[in-house]
Amino acid sequence: MRILTAFTLGAVLLCASSAAAQGGRGRGQVVFMGPGPGFGPGIDVLRVEPLELSEPVVDAPFSADTVTELVQQLPDGNRIEQRTTGSIARDSRGRIRSEQALVGFGPVPPDGARRIVTITDPSGRELHRLDEGRKIAWKLRMPPPRRDGPGAGRPPLPPGPAVKTEKLEPTRIEGIKAEGTRTVLTLPAGAIGNERAIDVVSERWYASDLGVVISTKRLDPRFGEITYRLVNIVRSEPPAQLFEVPENFTVRDQPPPPPLPPPPLR
What we know:
By secondary structure, the chain is mainly beta. It has a domain at about 10-145 and about 230-255. Helix content is about 5%, strand content about 45%. It is built from one helix and 15 strands. It has one helix spanning about 10-20, and strands at about 30-35, 45-50, 60-75, 80-90, 95-100, 105, 115-120, 125-130, 135-140, 160-175, 175-185, 200-205, 210-220, 225-235, 250-255. The two termini are about 30 Å apart. Residues about 1-20, about 25-50, about 105-110 and about 150-155 have low confidence and may be disordered.
């Protein structure tokens, strides 16, 4: 049984894999993704990153390790802790490579060597996910970036929930100045069968000098606390071969995600 409801692995996963290396348009949030081509049952991907893709960030190369941590306190006093690591790199052209370990939930643990590797070219609006086991590069054509501001085109919140956002005092993370925002989503009593209001608190730290989301944190009383951060940041040009699909891989179009289920009858 998974801890959180899983999103379909498709466009959402592929966008999430690279958006943290882009500009500040994204909205930080937690993503638990279900298995797609090449993944087995009981395996999810845990990310805390923005989902929106913006224009490519050029002339600001870097590479870094990523750390994602989940802490969940169970009602019986038990405690669940998950920690995954990965890496992310961006070259001077704005191309991005992201590597993320798989997380196992339930009775099926993942193979420790299994990971998700994505290569994104924002200029060409293309993304490839490397299936290293089968030597397949799943190709996804990304939609054009939004030009009408963050959050444009998102469906409105359902009746009841309220959102409050505030700016935080700038701080330095990994020696880099970062500007933060805190967003509180309040689910009023009765919104999901809850007796009292539920506050979901998210923090997002953006380093404008580097053009990257450097840290996010989400505290949801239903699921626990999830943090994502960049560490060991190196501000130099990564090797060019990181951003190319290996020659021994076959390129295939990414299968479209299944349609969303119909809304419940009222």
